[in-house]
Specification:
This protein is an all-beta fold. It has a domain of about 170 residues: Methylamine Dehydrogenase, Chain H. The protein is about 0% helix and about 50% strand. A 5-stranded mixed sheet has the order 1-28-27-26-25. A 4-stranded antiparallel sheet has the order 2-31-30-29, with no helix packed on it. It has a 4-stranded antiparallel sheet with strand order 3-4-5-6, with no helix packed on it.
Length: about 325
Amino acid sequence: MAPEPEIGQTANEFTIDSPPLDTISSVNFSPKSANFLLVSSWDDSVRLYDVVGNKQRLTYNHKGPVLDCCFSDGVHCFSGGLDCALKTYDFNASAEQELGRHEAAIKCVEFCNQMGVVVTGSWDKTVKLWDPRQPQPTGTYSQPDKVYTMALADERLVVGTVCRSRVMVWDLRNMSYVQQKRESSLKYQTRCIKAFPNKQGYVLSSIEGRVAVEYFDPSPEVQKTKYAFKCHRIKESGMENIYPVNAISFHSVHNTFATGGSDGFVNVWDGFNKKRLCQFHRYPSSISSLSFSHDGSSLAIASSFLHEEENANPPEDAIYIRSVSDTETKPK
């Protein structure tokens, strides 16, 4: 993909006041409003921010670092982390509840609107489905290895594990068998998976500065169109430094997607036409999470030191809210 010019920091971007005090694991805009942002962190907290007012509306805590969080609707959220607990919070009632537990850390939390179920992926090598009205999971399903990343495409669940070559595709309506067992197109560990808004496929990234575009349809003619490309690599002093691609977020209107890497850059891609649309300015630290708002008007960018990185004096964790334009996100 041909490089595009870097787009610098301008007046259309600001930082959130009172950010978390440790690594930011996840940022998620509300599915109902571009005003509210849910953030989980290694400081044991889950925070809800009013983006327009730039203030923290509420916070609740786990008994350990929180690795993921998600909204179910505009007034409820779910979270999980190293304390192995799945929690839910009701914003209207200001009430939290523990729904249940895994035997090891909960790495991923997703909500399936079509079925009204919460999906958790854990380092105990299982995926669990939860009815928010019940204290026990409705099902527990073994995975090949520790779950590292997950994505939903309606009732389809895509699971990436620590074992780099395995990607499992499940159908939440019938979890008695794996719908597809896929071999990753990438040679190194999968870091992030996100599904296309049109539900036709997914994008996955690796620790080795690569991104793959995959399609669910197993027919040979469709599988011929999948591809992978290099990104988040910087040439310095004659050497090419390669960085993990930690975060992916899709623009719900244009089907384009943003990637964030440990190089501190955010790129926006047109996956169908195999083009990079733009690159923003370099952020102070690794990009740990990204989230487009439901209407595509804003992008939340978590600039945050990751725990596997070596830095004696890392920059402070920060969340940037960037107003994005069609010029930056619409296929050309």
